[in-house]
Design goal:
Blueprint: H1 21-33, H2 46-67, H3 76-92, E1 96-100, E2 110-116, E3 122-128, H4 137-141, E4 144-146, E5 149-151, H5 155-175, E6 182-188, H6 199-207, E7 211-214, E8 223-228, E9 230-239, H7 255-267, E10 277-285, E11 295-304, H8 307-321, E12 330-337, H9 346-359, E13 367-371, H10 377-382, E14 387-388, E15 395-396, E16 404-406, H11 410-426
Parallel strand pairs: 3-6, 3-7, 7-14, 8-13
Antiparallel strand pairs: 1-2, 2-6, 4-5, 5-16, 9-11, 9-12, 10-11, 15-16
Amino acid sequence: MSHSPNPAEPTGHNDLRSKPVHLRSTLLFVVCAFPALAGAAPHPNAKVLAAVKVCEQSGRELLERVVAIDSGTGDVEGLNAVGATYASEFKALGADVKAVAPTPPAVGNNVVAALTGTGKGRIVLIAHMDTVFNRGDAAKRMPHWEGQHYVGPGAGDDKAGAVAAVCALKALKAIGFADFARIDVLLNSNEETGSSGTHDLIQSLARASDLVINLERGIPTDQVLVARKGDATLTAQFTGRAAHSGLEPEKGRNAVIEAARFALSLEKLSDAAKKTTVTVDILNGGDKVNVVPAHAELKADVRAFTTDELDRVEQAAAKLAASPSIDGVTIKTSMQRSFPPWPHNEHADRVIARANRLYAEIGRKVTPTEVGSSADVSYAAQTGTPSVDGFGIEGGDAHSVDDYADIGTLVPRVYLLTRLLMDVGHDPEGL
């Protein structure tokens, strides 16, 4: 039955019926496409949600097992043990699993697990097995639960990342979903030192894919990453002249004093407006209390969102080195670059928009953010393949004694990851 407006009813600008047809259509599209924005109840994919919930307990147990294994970068025994633990999980899902040696001098095998489906989309998931901790730290620090937080060496950074990958693939198998061309999972053995042994493998997989999802920990609450800084280590070597500190110090040329002055000048190369940071991390020199030090060394961490900024710092440091403040002291600088910058781009925005359409199914939304740390996503993005990061289980306090993974976020985070694999697997267009 048609409805004739009642003359007594208001027809002002707040009445949808008073809108032009094209505007009413637009509003209706927004309400239908984004029910969470319209106040509608969430409408999850029930099969996926149930499958993910089943993995919550096994995910906890897997996290406990891998965190108990020391796997600092370079610890071949520990890395291979962690890799074998994850590999058994992937093999049980029918994946083709390979141990891939890194490029020397990196050590400890990478793990690559591949699932082949019947659809179109090709997706790469990346996590890393290595940590910044030493052998014996797991036993010393006694990994433990603090509510929903599992605290232990590498728990959040990044052993929970591979747990998320395992649970997502388990969910796909449980619901019988294979509408993707290929899903590759790469577990890196040397990320914490710049992935020098794995970046070629990362880029090879990325070039053959439609989307790369890096499973570094998610940032509380429901934040994901769309940009990271590139990083480099700036080294300065100082050579002066030794002399007796008490008898004739004036004959010496103090390399430590020169290094200290140089350090203060380096800090000024930071640029807050461009978010470029130059942080002196190591400064040492001299080995005797009664000798003017003839040698010193400085190392500084440099982070920037653009290659131009890294270039600027390198050139400015070289210019400072050419004019030492103490006559007779020489300074040599060099800068070793690691992860390249990963600037914010439209590809990431499109993936985030797609992710939010899916996350709205359970009434949630991710917020994109940028961080100063670096990660494997930077190498993947260099290939031009759409890439996003921070899609792992949430966590925090990386590289500290309080490193944790929040297992309470496993269900929503893995739901989102699983639905994104399904969505891109079915239709990789428009990324």
